[in-house]
Amino acid sequence: MTEKKVYLDNSATTQVRKEVLEAMLPYFCNIYGNASSVHSFGQEAKAVLNSSREKFAQLINAQYSDEIIFTSCGTESDNISIAGSLLANKGKHVITSKIEHHAILHTCQNLQKNGYKVDYISTDKTGKINIEELKNKITDDTVIVSVMHANNEIGIIEPIEEISQILKQINKTRKIPVLLHTDAVQTAGKLKIDVQKLGVDLLSVSGHKFYGPKGVGALYIRRGTKIEPLFHGGHHEFGLKPGTENIAGIAGITKALELANNELEIEQDKICKLRNYLKDGIISKIPNVTINTDIKNSVASILSVSFDYIEGESLLLMLDMAGVAASAGSACATGSSEPSHVLSAIGASPISAQGTLRFSLGRYNTKEDIDYVLDVLPGLVEKVRKMSPIYKG
Ligand code: PLP
User: Which domain holds residue 104?
Assistant: First the structure.
C-alpha cells in the first residue's frame, strides 16, 4: 500500500467544500425548526428554505422560484419527472436514450412492466443521440422525452436545445405538449445551466456531484407543467416531495451551485487541461488503448479509456492499491458483470467494454496527481495484460 492518494472518481461523488459545510452548519443545532411550524423556530427555517429556492432558481435562470423543488437526490428528481408526468398527462409513451443513467432506464423499465411504452433512441459512436430517430418516434401518445444533458460514463454532451426546438415545432399542433426532461446531474456545476435557453420543462440536479452534500437534489419544473406526486403525506415542496425539508442540505446544495457557477470557466478550464494531459499521457505511454470520450464535445472532467486485453476490475483494484481511485464504467454499474449499456450503445465490443475505466477529475486534482497516475498506470496495465491468455506483448 502507498501513502499517495489520488481521487479520480469525481463523477461518482465529490467531497463537500469547506464553504458549503460552513453554510450548512447553522441548520443542525441553532436553526433547527420544522419549516412547516408556525412559531418563530419554524419561520426561521422557512425563511432559509424560501431564500434558497429563490437563489437556486436564479442560478439556473428559472423564471420563478416556485419552479424549483428540492428532492433527496438525482434519482428521485428523475423518477418524479418521468413517472409523475405520466400520471398527470394522458398518453402512455416515453422516449429516452439508450445511454441514460439507471435512474432513468430502470424507471422506464418499471413503467413498461406496468403497460407503458418506452422507445430507447440510439446514438452514434461518440454517444450523441440520433435526432432523426427521436423525431420519428414521436406519436400522439408521447408524453415526455428524456435525454440526459451529459453522460456519466463517457461525458458526451447531448444537443438538448436542438431537441427542444424540434419539440416546440411539434407542440404547435398538439393539444397536450410533449414534455422535455433532461438529467443534468453530470453538468450542474460544470456547465452553466440555463433552463430557459435549454428549453426544458424538467431538469434534474444532484448536490453531491458538485461539492455539495449527499442526500439532496433539485428538480426544475417549468410553470404550467402537469405533474403528479409519487409519494404522499404532506404539502411540502408543493406536494411533490412530501416530508420535512432537509434545510441544511438545501442550504448546502444552493451554496455549492453558487460557488461552482462563480468559478465555472476558470475551474473547468483547469480540469479540462488536466484531463487532456492525462489522455495524452495514456496514449503516449500505453499501447492498444481507445479513448471513448469525445474530447471536443464532453464535460471537462470525464475520460473513458478502453485498454485492450484487460479485465477492468483487476486494473481498478491494482490502481486502488497504488492509491488511485477510478471507476469501471459508472459507479452504479460496479458489481454487475454485464458490459456497460453505454459502451455497448456506442458500439464497443463486450471485451473492450470489460477493459474500460472512467477517470473523472475534479477541482482538487493537481498536475502532480496526474503525473503520479501516469507513472504507475503503464506498469499496472502491463501486469494485468500479462495475465491475459490472448496478450502477445
Ligand atoms: N443521473 C446521472 C447522470 C448520474 O450520474 C447519477 C449518479 O451517478 C444520477 C442520475 C443519480 O444521482 P443520485 O446519486 O443523486 O441519485
Answer: 18-262
